Amino acid sequence: MIRITDRIHLDESEIEESFVRASGPGGQNVNKISSAVQLRFHAAASPNLSEPVRDRLIRLAGRRATREGVIVISAQRFRTQERNRADALERLIVLIQEAARPVIIRRPTKPTLGSKIRRREAKGVRGEVKALRRKPVADG
């Protein structure tokens, strides 16, 4: 079991990994060893995610999510397969944790009377400063 939050745990069988050749660092091994990891998680079919979390997760994944609701994460930052596997899994966990956080709805508010008065006073002071920069009016 992979612990995501206190309430969300994923089974290892829900995550599918495939290994491909990386284009990044690898030295002499780059053309011989498949060190890049492509992690697939079928979010739409996961029984461990609630409906709102699942919807937010697919929306947050953006281009990494397919039409079927499969999230694909590619990792090839490191030279070793193990570090790339850990990197891909960590990125999936962070993505699910972000989706599990409830959305805080912003309630629009109006400025207070005090803030309106302070704003007008500040505008007046600024206008006076700018007025002092002007050329004096010649008395005729």
Descriptive labels:
140 residues; alpha+beta; Double Stranded RNA Binding Domain; 3-stranded antiparallel β-sheet; two-stranded antiparallel ribbon; 5 strands
What kind of oligomer do you see?
single chain
CATH level-3 fold name: Double Stranded RNA Binding Domain
The order of strands across the largest sheet is 3-4-5
Regions with little confidence, pLDDT below 50 for 5+ residues = none
Strand count: 5
Could you characterize what this model shows?
37% of the residues lie in helices and 16% in strands. With 140 residues, the protein is of the alpha+beta class. It has a single domain (2-100), classed as Double Stranded RNA Binding Domain (2-Layer Sandwich). Strands 3-4-5 form a three-stranded antiparallel β-sheet, with helices on one face. β1 and β2 (9-10) form a beta hairpin. α1 packs across α2 (81-100). The model has no long low-confidence stretch (mean pLDDT 82).
A few lines on this structure:
This protein has three helices and five strands; from the N terminus they run ββββαβαα. It has 140 residues and is α+β, with helices and mostly antiparallel strands.
Topology of this structure?
Layout (H helix, E strand, L loop, with lengths): L1 E2 L5 E2 L4 E6 L15 E7 L8 H11 L8 E6 L5 H20 L12 H21 L7
Antiparallel strand pairs: 1-2, 3-4, 4-5
Helix pairs in contact: 1-2
